[in-house]
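Entry 12.
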Amino acid sequence: MDPLRGLSPLVVTSPTTRSGTTLLQRLLCSAGNTLVYGEEVGKDLEMQLQILTARRLVYTHSRPRFADNLERFLQGDTNHWLVDLMPPLDDYLAALRQGAFAGLQECQRQAQAAGRTLWGFKYPGWPPHLLRLLSSELPGTRVIYLHRRLADTARSAKAWHDYAEPQMLAFCEQWLANQQAMRERRGDPTVLMLSFESLVQDPAGTLERLRDFLPFEGIDAGLLRDRINNQTHGGGAQHGHNDYIEPAALSAQEQAWVDAAQTAADA
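Predicted 3D structure (C-alpha cells):
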C-alpha cells in the first residue's frame, strides 16, 4: 500500500506574488478546522519535487547499467568499476519519493494534533507543471487558484519589490504564462478558481463557493476588511516600517506590457 495515500494537502496559489494569497490564507485559517501553512513549506516542497523529478530521469535513463552493476556485485564480482553501484532502483526511488513528502506528512500530523483536519500551505506563483506533478503523486491534493487583474497585481509588486522595468516585464510574462497554463484545469473538481476581485466585492458568494469546495467551518468574513501586506509586529518589516505599502504607479512601458498580457489572458 502507498504510504502516502492518506496525504491530502490544500494548496493556495496564484499566477504570481501580490495576488491576495495571504488574505485568503488568513481567511481560511480563521475556520476552526483549517490550517494553511506559509510559503516556506511550499519552497521546501518545490525543491524536493525538483530533486525527485531529476533523479527519476537519471535513474530511469541508466537503469540497465545500474542493474547490471548490482547483479555483478551480488554474484561476488567486486573487481570492477563500482562507482555506479546502487541498490535496487525501484525501492530506492520509492524511498526518495517518501522523503520528498516527509515534510508534508509532518505538516499533516501537526495540523491534526491541533484539531485542524483541513490543512495545506500557500505559495503564490507556483508553476502549473509542479501542481500537476503534486496532484499525480498525491491524488487527494486540492488547489485554490487565486487570480487577480494584472494591473493591480503589477502595481503592488512594483511597490513591494522595487522592480525595475526588466523585472516588471518578466513579472507580466510569468503572470500570463501561468494563467494560460491553468486553463487546462478548468472543470477539474480538485481545483477551485477564484478571483481576488470576487473575494473582496462578493464575499458572501465567494465564501459559499469555498464551502462547496471543501468543508471549511466558521470562516470569519470580517477579516476581509483588513488589508495587511506588511509585517505588523516586531522587527524585519519590509521597507523598515510596519505600515501598509501603497501600490506604485506604472511607467508607460510597464502599463503597455500589463495591457498586452491582460488582453492575451482574456482572449
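Annotation: The chain has eleven helices and five strands. The two ends are 45 Å apart (CA to CA).
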